[in-house]
Every structure is written in structure tokens, then in C-alpha cells.
Amino acid sequence: MGFDLGILVWAIGIIGVLMLMTRWAFKPSRPRTGRPDTGPNANLGLLIPVLSQAPRSQVLSAKNLLSLQGIRCSVSRLDRDSYDLLVFGADADRARELLAE
After folding, report:
1. Are 59 and 30 in contact (CB under 8 A)?
2. If DSSP codes are grouped into helix, strand and coil, which group holds residue 40?
3. pLDDT digits (tens, 9 = 90+) for 65-92
């Protein structure tokens, strides 16, 4: 009726293996890099800013104007008070012309 130390060693070993397996299975697929860069050197993929560092009301009215003209666009928040208006590269020239009017 003594305590078997072998069972305790096996239990700790099984728990250790399960912990390693779950760390491997649930690790992030991509490394966390933080906030993306802003400004002229920012890599935004297919999107190009046509209105930069503007107040929210100005960006939203410009977004509505471009949407009515059939240009797909999105708004990116830079900080508390400034936003960017982003469009696809093929629509950038047309969007700038519409915004200049």
C-alpha cells in the first residue's frame, strides 16, 4: 500500500508532452510586427492614399463622394484625430481628379 513514484513521473511526463504539443499547435502563424508604417514609405499593398492626415469629417465626405462615383475606397485611422483615404492603384488618378474638384 505504498505510494508508487513511477506513476507520478509518468503523469508529469505526459502533462509536459501535452503542454509542448499545445504550444506548438496554438502558436501564431505569423510573427507580430506591431502597427504598420505610416507616411510615404508605408507598404499598404494594393492601396494608395489619396487623402492623407485629414480630419474624420473631411475623409468621410470624400469617401462618400468617391463611392457615389463607383470608386472603391476605405478609411484608415492613423491616430486620434487624423485619417487616410485609401483607394486601389488603378483608381488613384481618377480619385485625385474628383477630389480636386
Report:
1. no
2. coil
3. 999 999 999 988 877 888 888 999 898 8
> What type of residue sits at position 49?
P
Residue 31 corresponds to which cell in the numbers above?
510573427
CB burial of 44-56 (b: ≥16 within 10 Å; e: otherwise) equals eeebbbbbbebee
Sign of CA dihedral 75, 46, 39, 32: positive
pTM comes to 0.59
Tell me, what amino acid is at 32?
R
CA 101 to chain centre: 32
Fill in the DSSP letter of residue 65. Answer: H
The β-bridge partners of 75 are 85
Query: Which of the 8 DSSP states describes residue 26?
Result: T
- Angle of helix 56-68 relative to helix 92-100, nearest 10 degrees? 110
Q: What angle do CA 30, 79, 94 make, to 5 degrees?
A: 85
Rounded Cα distance, 45 and 52, in Å: 16
